[in-house]
Amino acid sequence: MDSRFEGQLAGTLIEVQRRTATVRADVGSEHHCQYSPTIDLAEFHNFAVGDRVTFIASGPQQEAMILGIHPRTSRISRPGPKDRRADELILAANVDALVVVATPRQPEYNPRLVDRYLALAEIFDVQAFVLLNKVDLADEVPEELEYLKGLGYPVLRVSAKRGLGIPELRTALGGLKVVLSGPSGVGKSSLIRALIPGADPNVGDVRKGEGKGRHTTTTSNLYQSGDLTIIDTPGIRELGVRGVPKREFGEYWRDFKPYFGKCRFRDCIHVNEPDCAISGAVAEGKIPGYRYESYLRLLEDLES
Questions:
Q1: CA distance 16 to 36
Q2: In terms of CB atoms within 10 Å, which end of the chain has fewer, N or C?
């Protein structure tokens, strides 16, 4: 932190632009700030919504300026572009949970995409919830969700449009800083508006005949109501697996854990190896085939 400035304050980034950011001070006021040119970003790569910062407010002889960034307790990120110095782009910082939003209809439930987000929550070491929105469109719960409940993932059912289950959802997420994830069209913006009074994130209409929404959010934002904090970020669709050795990737699948140490080879990656306990469990129906297929598809993205 730069000790040359007096009146330093602490706060949280609630919106980040390329050259400026909005900080909500711990005392409640909001400040549109420049970045101090003295900040060393080598460790953090980039600022992100949810970051804790030290800053100074604007005054007669100074503009509002972020002076320093605090160490992160966690982060949600995606791989950085090949032409950028950073290997990853931080989408949200100091996150407690990733909420995977899905729907039974419009769009159809996609178990492999849900598996992908759950694996990423395990990799980022944050809590994971599965949230089934639009329950007014179908009475049945996908059987894949019942299986995930058996693995210990909390599964919540709501209808943001009709207000069903919203009070229970707010209670379940209370005290947490969460990121909503899921494909376009599942109602993430509607959920934010239902949970955070006064919030008005941009929302794209669901295209007729496709059941897919248009992703209209262009900047990350932090919304807060009481003890609930939601981070909405446009880059969540591009979350990818990077930096995890193939031989360790199975550790992030909860239903694989009972079979660890039972494969013939210690470095088994559970693909084509003989006497693999994981593939054996799949063949016996103890692990669903779709879960194993999700694992194999994500494994292909890993480099080694």
A1: 14
A2: C
Domain ranges of the chain: 9-71, 91-238, 246-299
Q: Is the pTM of this model over 0.90?
A: no
Judge contact between 229 and 223, C-beta under 8 A: yes
**Structure token digits, residue 25:** 């001070």
Query: Superfamily assignment of 246-299 in CATH?
Result: Probable gtpase engc; domain 3 (1.10.40.50)
Distance CA 249, CA 97 (A): 20
- Could you say which DSSP state residue 108 is in? T
**What is the CATH number that goes with domain 9-71?**
2.40.50.140
Strand pairing partners for 93? Answer: 75
Helical H segments across the chain, by residue range: 111-124, 143-150, 166-173, 188-195, 246-249, 277-283, 289-299
Give CATH for domain 91-238: 3.40.50.300
Across 36-45, 83-92, 191-200, 207-216, which has the greatest mean pLDDT?
191-200
